UniProtKB/TrEMBL annotation:
Signal sequence extent: none
Organism: Calothrix parietina FACHB-288
Family note: Belongs to the DegT/DnrJ/EryC1 family.
Gene Ontology MF term list: transaminase activity
UniProt xrefs under Pfam families: DegT_DnrJ_EryC1
Identification of the protein by name: DegT/DnrJ/EryC1/StrS family aminotransferase
Keyword set, alphabetical order: Aminotransferase, Pyridoxal phosphate, Transferase
């Protein structure tokens, strides 16, 4: 048991392992004894279960969420001369892979939900645009009905970045099953996290699926015959064994996250100086993060300095927090060549100055949640 004198961590993945130790350890030992470490029945079994969970026909496991995105772009033949539209407020991997295949990322600002502002997507489309990568950031689904309508009208592929949203749905349809492909990460702190790196792609398109299987395995269908430049991006059997066990608990864990978010919401909703996360009516989010915004001076002149001072005070009161993300992608040093300036995408730039992600993991106790709430109210 965690005592109240201990600081509240932003996340704690050791606790989750402790609850599953017997089951997970036995499965890992079995893999070690089996001698099948890469591919094989455990990986195929997990792919089947992950596909079934999403009500899609195909799942292709790979080495990371980043690879899932990279392989998807490759399978859709996106490369030099192409443009891909995405949000500026996301983890670098979302855009990095666009550059890695030789295409150009086109960044769009966000709205109040922290997700891509769909009203601004259409204006970013050019004759070179080939795809859109919506990110279900912090576990909150993008309005996929509106996004798919835009994509269809302009004949664009949709690659869902579901890295932070495993189990979320939009209008009762799981994210990752709505676009042409869905990309997932099993990084340890994601909603379905392995004990190492891992990722997967979901799709209902058998042709894309077979391309993905070839690309993740050195561009080879028949051993030692290589038809394409591929990569080595396979999921280890140990990770598949662990993930298959954890997938059975995912819905319960997501329910716990939802209850914690509701509790935070209840006590933080009316607090002056705090903006709680905004949700859309059709979305069922899974709260990878519970991210508030703090601002002083009636939202004029809200600065990163003020936010950082709030975090510092929280830390002194025994509450850890995180900043996702301090700098939007359009202002990153690597993207200076794209010509964006400070002020180009102002909503995201402001968010970067105001966001604080509070402790959020399924095992967070009510006592810890209370501590977070009291500490935060004290700081403002
Ligand atoms: C974690 C993450 C990724 C990358 O996943 P990895 O498994 O760490 O490679 C991509 N996009 C988003 C939004 C993420 O949060």
């Amino acid at each position: 048991m965690i005592q109240s004198v201990n600081p509240v961590p932003a996340f704690d993945i050791k606790q989750q392992y402790a609850t599953l130790e017997a089951e997970v350890s036995a499965a890992v030992l079995e893999v070690l004894a089996s001698g099948r470490y890469i591919g094989g029945p455990l990986v195929e079994g997990f792919e089947k279960q992950f596909a079934a969970y999403h009500h899609v026909s195909e799942c292709i496991a790979c080495n990371s969420g980043t690879d899932a995105l990279f392989l998807s772009l490759r399978a859709l033949n996106i490369g030099a001369g192409d443009e891909v539209i995405t949000t500026t407020f996301t983890f670098i991997a979302t855009a990095e892979v666009i550059s890695a295949v030789g295409a150009k990322p086109v960044f769009v600002d966000i709205d109040d939900t922290f997700n891509i502002d769909l009203k601004q997507v259409e204006a970013a489309i050019t004759p070179q645009t080939k795809a859109i990568i919506p990110v279900h950031l912090f576990g909150q689904p993008v309005d996929m009905t509106a996004l798919m309508a835009i994509a269809q009208a302009h004949n664009l592929a949709v690659i869902e970045d579901c890295a932070q949203a495993t189990g979320a749905s939009w209008n009762n349809q799981k994210v990752g099953s709505i676009g042409h492909v869905g990309c997932f990460s099993f990084y340890p702190t994601k909603n379905l996290g392995g004990c190492g790196d891992g990722g997967a792609i979901t799709t209902n398109d058998p042709e894309i699926a077979s391309k993905l299987r070839v690309l993740r395995d050195h561009g080879s269908k028949v051993r030692y015959i290589h038809e394409e430049i591929g990569v080595n991006s396979r999921l280890d059997a140990i990770q598949a064994a662990i993930l298959e066990i954890k997938l059975r608990y995912l819905d319960n864990w997501n329910e716990s996250r939802k209850a914690i978010a509701a509790y935070y919401h209840q006590f933080l909703n009316q607090v002056p100086g705090i903006i709680v996360p905004q949700e859309l009516a059709g979305g069922a989010g899974v709260w990878n993060q519970y991210t508030i915004r703090v601002s002083n001076a009636e939202r004029n002149g809200a600065s990163a300095k003020y936010r950082d001072s709030v975090r510092q005070q929280l830390q002194e009161k025994g509450v850890s927090s995180m900043v996702y993300y301090p700098l939007p992608l359009h202002l990153q040093p690597i993207y200076q060549n794209l010509g964006y300036q400070p002020g180009s995408l102002p909503v995201a730039e402001q968010a970067c100055h105001e966001v604080i992600s509070l402790p959020m993991f399924p095992e967070l106790t009510q006592e810890q949640q209370d501590k977070v709430i009291y500490a935060l109210k004290d700081c403002l």
